[in-house]
Structure formats: C-alpha cells, structure tokens
Design a protein that fits this description.
About 55% of the residues lie in helices and about 10% in strands. With about 450 residues, the chain is an alpha/beta fold.
C-alpha cells in the first residue's frame, strides 16, 4: 500500500517537458535583465506571447515553499513565479485560468541541482489550489537547448538563429555598461543609455526576428555603443580590471548577488563578467565532446547503430557550436570597432588552458570547468583580481575556490569568494573593500592590459 504522506515526484512527460507554447502566455524568469528581455523579444517575433517576470519581489513566497536546503536560484525563480500568479489572481479574479500560462524553465543534466528546479517547481504548483494546469516548459542541455517542440517545426531553425543573436547582443550590451560606467562623465548616464538601448534592441528583434535580423540588430547595437563611447571621460585613469566567474544565475542576477558589480565599481573596479554566450557555447561544446566519446567507443566495440547515432549527434552539436561561435565573433567584431569592450573567448581555448594546467578536467561537467580556466585566463591576461560568485553550498563554486586559491596565491593575484544566499552578510563591504585595496596594489605593481 502506498504511503500517502510521501510527496510523489510528478511524471515529467505529463507535467514538465517541451510543451508547444501556442497561444499561452510564456513566463520567463529574469536571470540576466538584458538576456531575458531580448530572448522574450525573439519569442514574440515568432508570435509567442512572452513576458519577463518581475524579479526579487517574491522572495518571501519563495522562502515559504522551500526548506532552505535548495539552491538559492531555485528560491528566487519560484518566488518570482508565485508572486506573479498572486498578482494575476488579484487582477483577473474569477477569470484567472492557470492553463493559459506556461512557465519557461531550462534545465541541465549533471551534478548541479539546476536540473531539478523545474521538477521542484512542479511539485510546489501541484500542491497549491488551482495551479496544476499551469505548465512548465523546459529546454535541456542534452540537445543543446533546441527549441524543437516549443514552436512550429518550420520556424525552429530561424528562431534558433534569432535567439542566438539576441543572447550575443545582450552580452555586448552588458559589456558596454561594465566598460563605460566606471568612467562615465556623469553618474547614471550609462544605466539610462543601457535601458534605452535594451528597449530599442527589443523592438528591432521583435520586428525583424522572423526574417533577417542580423544587420538591423547589430546596426542598432552599434548606435548604442557609439553613444556609450561618448560617455567615457578620457581624463579618468585606467582602473583595476576585475574578472568575474561562477555559477551563471548568481553572477548574472543583480538582486541575488546584491548588485556585486556595482559594489566593486564603488571601490574603484572595472569589471568583466563571464557571458551568457559562454554557457550556451559550452553546452554545444560539451555535447560534441560526449558524442565523440560515444563514437570512439562504438567504433572500438564495432556497434554500427551507436556509430550512426553518435555521428548524427556530433554533427548536430558541431553545427550548433560553429554557428554560435561565428555569430558571436561577427557581432563582437563590429561592436569592438565602436567601443573597446572585452572580447569573448572560445570554449576550446578554455579547455586548452585547463589541460595545460592539469588542475581540473572538462570530463567533470560542472561550471567549475569553465570558472577555473576562466580565472587562469584572467591571471595571464593582465587582470588585477578575480571574483568567484556562487550559491551558498554550491559544489562547483566551492570546487573552483579550492582549486584556484593556491594557484593565485603563487601568482599574487587578488581573489574574492562570494557565496550568496538571501541574507545580508555583515562582512561583505569589508571583504569587497579589502579585495579592491589589493587589486589597486596589483595595478600599481603590474599594470593591466587595456
């Protein structure tokens, strides 16, 4: 007899999966403001009613339905969703219908708890009255976050191209802010320009995304970059350049990391955060690596079916990676003609750094295999300090810290660990100030690369 007190996991095929978005309103959690809004614009270009959820206003609801053992981003995204639902119920009253909404929550395989967010969200929704019909639509890293099944089949390839362009444009817009804001002629001008640029880029993507969006989007982006260049005060000397790595949600979500980049800037930093594009390229890169491994095994064991399947998978991941990297390179090339933002790196370059160091391996699929070589890249690339951002108790974040600390001690590069949860850490300001004092000393002794 089944114990009714045991909370049962929902059947993923029925409750969580790749549901066609159709006429539903798609709710997108805001991890990174630029990326979320430009991705929503890409969906709207293909007639999907996409909306970015307001973030940070539902933390108390998130805490109410979590135990504290979950990863912090799980609490934030759940709270954002429940807060939206609460407001919709008040706005619509009896007309509210949960089946008219789809919550968009990507996932991934591996040891990170991120892969279980959508399942836990489903369990919470099923436990609340009237919310069992609200669907959770997912994309997964196992097929390079392919949108197949979400939109009409004939539009999948065009949407993938538009979504990729939107993500790269968001990365460039963010790097404009980090490059210009520490040197702006008047406080607040950069943020105002970035917000205006975000609305302009969203409009262009929504208008042109279903056709040929590259030139219109990049052209608009160049205008924003040119305006950003005009805000730079040439009289301000170069500041310590700080690299930021870590868990993707925490280093991107300003509310969750307590606006860490602005805190570092307040004490004299110019920050370069790892990009969204890095993670998307890594997903395709790792998929290609795994497909090649299965191919080699199939050849060794003479399994024709496995060889055929692995070849098809390798081709798919390889094409995705090639297109993503070429889009990234093309956009950054034009962007850097307008403003000297930091370039992005290829994932293959990070693996070479990691293999040469012997300190970790891409065979361990966590964000640590991006963060560790990213830190080593900063150490050898003229940076004056590195910050590692991750959720409290995050295994990849703590692994990164354990591996790089002795290396950076030898190199004399300042390093700051910033585990985050919903509490305000009393020594945070002291830690940031001390770190930035060390970074300024490093700049005086070693300089920096522009």
């Amino acid at each position: 007899m089944q114990n009714t007190n045991v909370l049962q996991m929902p059947a993923p095929a029925q409750a969580v999966g790749k549901f066609h978005l159709g006429q539903s309103r798609v709710l997108i959690p805001e991890m990174n403001r630029s990326s979320a809004h430009l991705f929503a614009a890409a969906l709207r270009a293909f007639a999907v009613d996409a909306q970015v959820l307001a973030t940070g206003r539902g933390l108390e609801l998130g805490k109410k339905y979590t135990s504290g053992k979950e990863c912090y981003p799980c609490l934030v995204t759940l709270g954002d969703l429940l807060h939206f639902i609460e407001e919709e119920r008040q706005r619509l009253g009896p007309a509210f219908r949960a089946d008219r909404y789809v919550f968009f929550m990507p996932e991934s395989e591996g040891p990170c708890r991120f892969g279980m967010y959508s399942r836990y969200h489903r369990m919470v929704l099923d436990s609340l009255p009237g919310l069992k019909e609200l669907k959770i639509s997912t994309l997964t890293n196992t097929d390079s976050y392919s949108p197949e099944g979400l939109i009409d089949p004939q539009e999948v390839q065009r949407f993938k191209k538009t979504a990729c362009l939107a993500m790269v444009a968001a990365d460039v817009l963010d790097r404009l802010v980090w490059r210009v804001r520490p040197y702006e002629t008047s406080a607040g001008l950069t943020d105002a320009l970035a917000e205006q640029g975000l609305h302009r880029l969203s409009a262009v993507i929504e208008r042109c995304g279903a056709g040929s969006p590259f030139d219109p989007v990049v052209g608009e982006l160049e205008k924003v970059l040119a305006a950003g260049q005009a805000l730079v005060d040439p009289a301000v000397p170069p500041k310590p350049r700080i690299g930021m790595v870590g868990e993707i949600f925490l280093r991107m979500h300003r509310g969750s990391n307590q606006d860490l980049i602005r805190a570092l800037e307040r004490y004299g930093a110019e920050v370069v955060n790892a990009s969204m594009g890095e993670w998307l390229n890594y997903v395709s890169y790792d998929g290609l690596r795994q497909a090649k491994k299965r191919l080699r095994l199939g050849l060794r064991l003479f399994r024709p079916r496995q060889v055929s399947e692995s070849l098809r998978e390798a081709l798919g991941f390889g094409i995705n990676l090639l297109f993503q990297e070429r889009t990234q390179q093309a956009v950054f090339k034009r962007a850097r003609r307008r403003l000297d933002i930091a370039a992005d790196h290829r994932i293959g370059h990070l693996e070479k750094i990691l293999n040469a160091s012997g300190d970790f391996s891409f065979d361990i699929p966590t964000e640590a295999c991006l963060s560790i070589p990213g830190i080593l890249h900063c150490a050898r690339g003229g940076y004056n300090g590195v910050v590692n951002v991750y959720p409290f108790t995050c295994m990849p974040g703590m692994t990164t810290s354990a591996v790089v600390r002795p290396i950076l001690n030898q190199l004399g590069l300042p390093f700051l660990d910033t585990p985050c949860d919903d509490s305000l850490q009393p020594n945070r300001e002291t830690a940031v100030r001390t770190f930035m004092y060390q970074a300024r000393q490093h700049l005086q002794r070693h300089g920096r690369k522009m």
